[in-house]
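User: Hey, quick favor. My workstation is busy. Could you predict this chain's structure for me?
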Amino acid sequence: MSGRRRTAILISSRGSNMGALLAAAADPAYPAEIALVLSNRADAAGLALAAEAGIDTAVVESRRFGRDRAGFEAAMEEVLGARGIELIALAGFMRVLTEGFTARWSGRMLNIHPSLLPAFPGLDTHARALAAGVRLHGCTVHLVTPGVDEGPIVAQAAVPVLPDDTEDVLAARVLAEEHRLYPDALRWLAAGQLRLEQGRVQLDNAPAPHVGALRNPG
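Assistant: No problem, here it is.
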């Protein structure tokens, strides 16, 4: 299908959400074509899964650059440019991106985070949610900006926190929602239905996400 936006998924490990995006993009009517899966680690398990699905893969080893973040990102940019990449979806990509990189991809790069932002940015979100005693937890898809987990919110999905939940049980409940929400958000971005207005995401003519999820604005 012509007109599909060439999209790269960036991973550091197994790329669980990568699998959900690949499954969605297997439909020729889906507006994003997954043209590349790129990892900063050669041992990322998701690379083999992507290759099995017939997706082009690449590795830019971040450790080779040490503290030279700009050098690492320049090497990634070279790979992305060679593949004609238009959009980026981060899926467990464990690198903090510089202001320069995020500026170049402003409005074209998504991330999914396992909490209802702005609550619990950063790591160990499920343990922190349990420790805080919250009754609702979930996931957030947002546009990427220089601040970690601070970008404009595209959509969120909430799950209950049950009295007998462990970290693993809660994480699995949230992950199921991530796998449903992320393909929705990438679809909106690739279809040109997502725009920024005064720092907030607006969605034009986008269908409602699945039950239990809210887009921004709801």
